[in-house]
Inverse folding.
């Protein structure tokens, strides 16, 4: 997950100062040329990349088991600043990951969509200006039946086939 590493950028305020960004910057430059602030803004906050995955016969399958540090209400990481120290397999969603392993991201992930030459969906907070629009559109983990990874005995029992994954 790629969310708000700076305390200055909270989920609720990060779209408020868009005047300092070029309008529709994501349409004008390739991902590799984005500033780190622009890169951060692209994350819609869905939380879906924080679901545990299994590799089955060479295919990545998502499960409904969430990382223990993902808040299922806000879909945000509770330990963002320290995530790599505390979770050995927490993945940094950078350009290399998006290019080389797009299958670990949901089909709705903005990084994946732009890499595939697609447009941001109309519910994306960069389009709506509302950080909650991802939840209101039903595109985040909010409202889904999830289980914490700490309660899982067998991940295969929790494989999911949501169309957006
Ligand atoms: S899947 Fe993509 S858009 Fe959603 S939280 Fe993860 S990095 Fe952000
Ligand atoms: S520590 Fe867990 S909740 Fe936080 S970003 Fe990593 S996978 Fe997501």
């Amino acid at each position: 997950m790629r969310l708000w590493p700076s305390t200055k950028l909270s989920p609720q305020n990060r779209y408020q100062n868009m005047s300092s960004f070029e309008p529709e910057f994501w349409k004008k430059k390739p991902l590799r040329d984005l500033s780190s602030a622009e890169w951060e803004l692209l994350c819609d906050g869905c939380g879906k990349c924080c679901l545990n995955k299994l590799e089955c016969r060479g295919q990545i399958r998502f499960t409904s088991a969430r990382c223990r540090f993902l808040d299922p209400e806000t879909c945000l990481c509770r330990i963002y600043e320290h995530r790599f120290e505390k979770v050995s397999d927490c993945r940094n969603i950078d350009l290399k990951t998006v290019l080389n392993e797009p299958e670990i991201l949901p089909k709705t992930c903005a990084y994946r969509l732009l890499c595939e030459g697609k447009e941001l969906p109309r519910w994306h907070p960069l389009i709506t200006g509302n950080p909650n629009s991802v939840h209101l559109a039903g595109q985040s983990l909010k409202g889904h039946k999830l289980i914490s990874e700490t309660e899982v005995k067998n991940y295969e029992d929790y494989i999911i086939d949501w169309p957006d994954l």
